[in-house]
Every structure is written in structure tokens, then in C-alpha cells.
Amino acid sequence: MIRKRIYLTAAIFLLVVSFSAYYLYRVNRSARSRLEYANGLIEVNPRKALEDVEQINRTFLSERNYMMCDLVKAGALIGIQEYLVPDSLLNIVSPYFKYKADSLHLTEIYYYRGEIARHSNFLLEAVEYFTLCTQYNNDVYDLRELNFYLNNFKGQVYHTKHMMKEEKEAKLAALSLARELNNPSLIAEAYSELTHYYARTNDGDESIPLLKTASMKGYSGSLQARLLFLLSEKYADKHMSDSARIYALQIPHLYQDSVDYLLGKIHSDLQQIDSARFYLNRSSQSNNPFICLKTYRQLTDLNIRTGSLNGVSDCLERLTHYQAQIDSIAYNEDLAQIENVDKLRKMIRDSEVAEAEYYRYWVFYCRIIVIAFTVILILMSISIILQKKKKNLQLKRQQSRLDALKMQIDPHFIFNNLSILLDLVETGDATAPIYIKCLSKVYRHIVANVDKNLSSVADELSSLEAYIFLLKIRFEDAIQVEVQVQDAIRERQIPPIVLQMLLENAIKHNQVSEETPLFIRVYSDGNKLVVENNCKPLTPNSSTHHIGLRNIKERYQLTGAPAPEIYQDEHIYRVTLSTL
Questions:
Q1: Helices 222-237 and 241-249 meet at what angle, rounded to 10?
Q2: 409-578 has which CATH code?
Q3: What are the phi and psi torsion angles at 543 (to 5°)?
Q4: What is the pLDDT of residues 372-428, one digit of tens each?
Q5: What transmembrane ranges does the database entry give (predicted)?
Q6: Is-contact 324 293, C-beta < 8 A?
Q7: What DSSP character marks residue 516?
Q8: Residue 6 CA to chain centroid, in angstroms?
Q9: What is the C-alpha to C-alpha distance for residues 143 and 134, in angstroms, rounded to an integer?
Q10: Pairwise CA distance, residues 345 & 127, whole Å
Q11: What is the rounded CA–CA span in Å between residue 66 and residue 229?
Q12: Measured on CA atoms in the order 398, 399, 401, 402, is the torsion positive or negative?
């Protein structure tokens, strides 16, 4: 009954575990499909991708799918230009993918971090992340696009460090990659960066063709105005007044102060002093300090050529003022960038180390929990096994007792004894009362000791004497039993009814007749009892007394005593019993 309950409980448990595993598999498979679909929507429709991710129930998701939810959500938020939340989400997911060495998703993480740094104007951080992105890239992004961003940001960093040659090479490389990609937005961004470089240099021969090509693309807004301004200024520096005027007049009226400066410079180059002074005086009213600085430089040259010393003095004073203002702006920008460079680099390094360390400890603690849970399961299993073993031992003990009782209360033995008793009573034999007394003593001893594990040697010998008397009445001189046990061993203990069982087995498996009597000897050997008989097997192939001895061995095992020792040859069969 208990075994059936155990099997039923195990079957129910396996069924529940199987159903739970299948349910978790279906949930995670569905979530993975939805995440793949949402990830594909990030560039096309980031808001729809965000909605799809938010609708996923994360309760039963695996760790990987849970992290993927945050990663896709971060990408969708970056797609709709929400940068604050993605940064915190990426801080959560990046340790997991670093620990798993998942280059595919690490590329996405570094790309997203680079985008955040790019829009936050953290140039060095952007360079760091896009460098890592190119290292981990595994056909996730077009490597040319990654290298475009990398070169573009490097050019900006070189600008802050006043590395003109490196800045020019990086920005030209970015333009080349943008043209190769044929991406209008990237091309516009590359031209925008180049205009900043050429605005600070006098490299007219190389800059004019490039700026001219860019201006012909018809960009709108400040980029187009900036390109036209630089073209007009470069042509004016080369004393090509007609070309300079053409591009200056194309600048939108929104940037009239720049147009006035260019026209003033062109008229000054053409020696048209009044017109030049008119336009330059108008451009000097600009709110842009860079235009004002250029304007007062032209006015200074103009006043020197016309011999106006008062005008020169005033222009120099203005030049000093605007130069100091521009230097202050540039200094503050450079200082802020320089202060952030080491700080940002250290922040990237420290945050990544901290994230990896956090995840490593998190996994370590998870493993400890799993190991502890496994140890508890093992201990519980051992406890159940020990309990089951104990219960089996008890069942064996009970079965052994029943077997002992069955072995002793043999129906044939009872019927034989009753038949002998009837003959004794009918013939009026004087031994009948003694026979009844001995038979009663034997079975009283069996019943009294059936629930006991041990009995004294003295009690066993006393019962054995009554049993021998019954055998003598039945077999007369066909059985000879000799008992020689020292008094020192009589107080020791053995399993009950063992001696009787050995005598019964000897009679059962040997020939018994007056011509060839069976000799049985019971004697002590130190702290051991020995039951010995001569061998007179019933048949030539008759085996031994293993059926009865199996019961005796099990009973000795229950008491923890050494097992009986058996010796047999052609003439003697001997069983040596330990005593406790």
C-alpha cells in the first residue's frame, strides 16, 4: 500500500513537472518570437516596438528572454530619442551578456551606448563605445557605418586636442564611408564636420572643390548657409571676386550678417572703399562674435589702407574684445572636454568592471542557492531512503519472526506428535504425561519468544531438552543427541529457537534408522555454540540445509551479530553460532 502511494505521488510529481516545463517552454518560445519581431521594428517603427515589448508578461520568462526585453526596450526608446531610461536598462543587461560572452548582443549594447553618448555630446565616450562595437560586431551592423561614426567622433576629439592633421584625416575618412554607404544623412553630417575644419584653415585649393560639391547637393538650413559662406570666403581669399559674390548672394537672408561681411570683403578687395565700409559696418552689428571678429579684421586693414588712425585704434580695441570672448568660449569648451575625457574613460572602465563584478557575484549567489537546494534534496532523499530501509528492516524482522514460527509449527510435526501422544495414552504408557509436558514446554517457548530478538542460552537449552525428549519418543534409538555446554556460556544470548531449528533441519535432510542412527552433538567452543551431525543424506544429490539456514542468517543479521559459520565434508555437517 505504501509503495503504491509512493509510485502515485512520484507519478503526479513528474506529471506536474512535465506540464510546468512544457508551459514554460511555450511561454518563452512565444516571448522570443515577439522579441525578434519587436527588434526588427526598432528602425522602422520604434513606438510600435516599444508597445509590443511592454505587452510581454515577464513572470515566467527565462533570464535570457528577460534581459532581451530590456535590451529591445532600450533600443526602441533610443529610436524615439528617449536616452535617460535606456542608459539604466543597458546598465542592467550588459553584465549578463558580458558574462555570457554574447558578442551578437554586446554589439547592440555598445551601439546603443554610442548613440546615447553621441546625442549627449560625450565625444570620447562615443569613440570608446563605437570602437568596442566594431570589435564585437558580428554582421549585426554594417561595419562601414560603425567606422563612419568612429572616424567622425575621432575627428571631433582631435579638434578639442588641436590635432589638425589627424582631425582632417578622420573627417575625410568619415566622408568617404558616408559616400560609400550612400546615406544622405551621414553625408550631410560628414560635410557639416568638414566645414568646421575648413573654417579654421586656409586650405583653399583642397577645400573649394569639396565644398562646391557639397553645396550643389542643395542642403537646407544652417549647413547650406555654412557651405556657401565658406565657399564665398575661400574665393575671396583667392581674389576671385565674381565667384565669391555668386556664392555670397545665395546665402539665405536669415544669415544677412554673414552676407554683409562677405560683400564688405569683396568690395575691399576691389578697392571700393565706401561700399566695403558700408557692408562691414552693418556686419559689425552681428550677435555672432566670430562674424564680428572677422569684420573688425577687415575694417582694420581697410582703415590702415585709407590712413584712418582713429578707426584703426577703435578696431584694434574691438578685435581684442571679441578675440578674448572667442578664446574664453573655446577655452571653456576645451576645458570642459578635457576634464570629461579622463572622467568619462574612467567611468566607462569602472562601470563595466562593476557591472561584470555584480553579475559574477549574482551568478555566484544563484549557484549557492541551487547547490543548497540540491543538497537539501539529496538529504531529503537520503532520509527517505533510510526511512524506507528501516521500514523494510522492520518488515523483514516481522517476516523472519513469522518464518521462524512457521518453521517450528510444522503441521507434520504437530500431527506426528499428536499421533504418538494418542498411542501413548491408548497403551497406558507412563511417559504420556511427561510427553504432554515436554510438548507444551516446546510450544510455550516458541510462542513466548516469537517477538524477541534474543534469548539466553540457558533458556534455549532448557527448551531443547524437552524437544530432544519428543524426538527420542518418536525415533527411539535412531537419533542420538548429546549436549555438552559449559556453564560460562549459558548466560550469553542467541536468537531464540535457533538450536531447535538446526536439529529439525538435521533430521529433515538425513536418513534416520536404528541400523544407521543420526548422531547430533551440541557443545560449546569458547563463546560459541556448535551444532554438529554426521552426514547421511537422503539422496546422493541432496543439497544442504540452506533453506533453514537462510532464516537463521537473517535473524542473526537483525541482531547485528556475526553470521553463522558452516562447515561440511563427506562425514560431518557443522554450524557454529556466535553468542552475545
A1: 170
A2: 3.30.565.10
A3: -80, -155
A4: 767 777 777 777 777 777 777 776 666 665 555 445 445 556 666 777 777 777 676
A5: 7-25, 362-386
A6: no
A7: S
A8: 33
A9: 7
A10: 10
A11: 53
A12: positive
What residues have CB less than 8 Å from 250, skipping those under 6 apart? 228
Report which DSSP code applies to 545.
S
For 518: left if phi > 0, alpha if psi spans -120 to 50, otherwise beta; the answer is beta
SS3 47: helix
The proportion of the chain whose per-residue pLDDT surpasses 70, expressed as a percent, equals 83
Instruction: Please provide the size of the chain in residues.
Output: 580
d(CA 61, CA 99) in angstroms, rounded, equals 19
Report d(CA 382, CA 128) in Å as an integer.
55
Distance CA 45, CA 2 (A): 62
Residue type, 323: Q
The set of cell numbers assigned to 353 is 568592471
Strand (E) or helix (H) holding 494: strand 493-494
- In a 3-state reduction of DSSP, which class is residue 1? coil
Mean pLDDT, range 164-175, rounded to an integer: 83
Q: Cα separations (Å) of 337 from 150, 194, 344, 369, 523?
A: 18, 20, 10, 46, 107
CA 57, CA 534: separation in Å to the nearest integer?
85
CB 340 within 8 A of CB 123: no
At 58, list the grid cell: 515577464
| 171 within 8 A of 155, measured Cβ to Cβ | yes
**pLDDT tens across 467-510, in order?**
888 888 777 778 888 888 888 888 888 888 888 888 888 888 88
How far separated are the first and last CA of the chain, in Å rounded?
Answer: 37
CA distance 470 to 531: 18
Q: How does DSSP classify residue 565?
A: E
Task: Give residue for cell 536669415.
Answer: 254
> Is the per-residue pLDDT at 330 higher than 80?
no
**134 Rama class: left (phi>0) / alpha (psi -120 to 50) / beta:** alpha
Task: Name the grid cell of 361.
Answer: 557575484
